[in-house]
From TrEMBL:
GO terms for molecular function: ATP binding. This is ATP-binding cassette domain-containing protein. It comes from the Bacteria. Keywords: ATP-binding, Nucleotide-binding, Transport. The keyword ATP-binding applies. InterPro entries: AAA+_ATPase (IPR003593), ABC_transp_ATP-bind (IPR050319), ABC_transporter-like_ATP-bd (IPR003439), ABC_transporter-like_CS (IPR017871), Oligopep_ABC_C (IPR013563), P-loop_NTPase (IPR027417). Residues 17-264 form the ABC transporter domain.
Length: 288
């Protein structure tokens, strides 16, 4: 090969999640305009990649997250996970369970999503048995492996949710999501209720899981510092519209859209200047 010939750039990894022009609007009382929570939102997430979804309350973040796991319908658009059409009718229980296994969600409040009557191990076994991914003995063995994976002890596995700390409950929620070997893991404000040290532990755990398991991750948060820590790429939402997207480092350190600049300037930290926030708000209002 001649010295003048360049080596081709490596091909981008194939996308596990492909969302095209997702739209969702909510009807309001008579006389009021509908609220558009997602307006032609498109994105890709590759294996082992974390896509951050940021924006103020009401920007549409949670609506998009819920569409991905089937808790919210889309008015228009398409969604494929590992090539499977998520919006095609699921015929029969087996198809519905297979669809549920594909995309698992970890909520902000794990206590509300865990069965308070079951111990941690029982909850993990029940999830695997429901989805038919293991027999009873295999599910018990896998539950022990999952506890170890999320750094919980066998003793903690015998406890019920109310006997665990908030961080431990979030680890249980992650373990339960992983129990069915999902393609996509959606975390909706999953660390916002935790203190900083526990946040760091959960973020480290999620980072390990996505690298080792090769799953796609959608990380939804209003906390830009947390998203900057974990995400490879970022989508910035404003009232259902994607106003900016790109590598996390570029979006947060050299934002191009006035709204993104407003969000970044609003994060308190060393040298934080409230006057800059006011100026950014005026800039954004003028751009609108």
């Amino acid at each position: 090969m001649s010295a003048s010939m360049s080596t081709p750039a490596p091909a981008a990894p194939p996308a596990l999640v492909e969302a095209e022009r997702l739209r969702r609007e909510f009807r309001m009382p008579k006389g009021q305009d509908p609220v558009v929570a997602a307006n032609d939102v498109s994105f890709r997430i590759a294996a082992g990649e974390v896509l951050g979804l940021v924006g103020e309350s009401g920007s549409g973040k949670s609506t998009i997250a819920r569409m991905l796991v089937g808790l919210e319908r889309a008015d228009a658009g398409s969604l494929r996970i590992a090539g499977a059409d998520r919006f095609a009718p699921a015929r029969g229980q087996a198809a519905r369970l297979a669809r549920a296994r594909q995309a698992q969600m970890v909520f902000q409040d794990p206590y509300g999503s865990l069965d308070r009557r079951l111990s941690v191990q029982q909850a993990l076994v029940a999830a695997m048995r429901l989805h038919g991914v293991a027999d009873r003995e295999g599910a018990r063995r896998r539950a022990g492996e999952l506890l170890d994976r999320v750094r919980l002890t066998e003793q903690q596995g015998s406890l019920r949710p109310h006997q665990l700390s908030g961080g431990q409950r979030q680890r249980v929620a992650i373990a339960r999501a992983l129990a069915v070997s999902p393609t996509l893991l959606v975390l909706d404000e999953a660390v916002s209720a935790l203190d900083v040290s526990v946040q760091a532990q959960i973020l480290e755990l999620v980072d390990e899981i996505r690298r080792e398991a090769g799953i796609a991750v959608l990380f939804v948060s209003h906390d830009l510092a947390v998203v900057d820590e974990i995400a490879d790429r970022v989508l910035v939402l404003y009232r259902g519209d994607v106003v900016e997207e790109g590598p996390a480092a570029a979006v947060f350190r050299a934002p191009e859209h006035p709204y993104t600049r407003l969000l970044v300037s609003s994060v308190p930290g060393p040298g934080w200047d409230p006057h800059e926030v006011i100026a950014r708000r005026r800039e954004f209002d003028a751009a609108r």
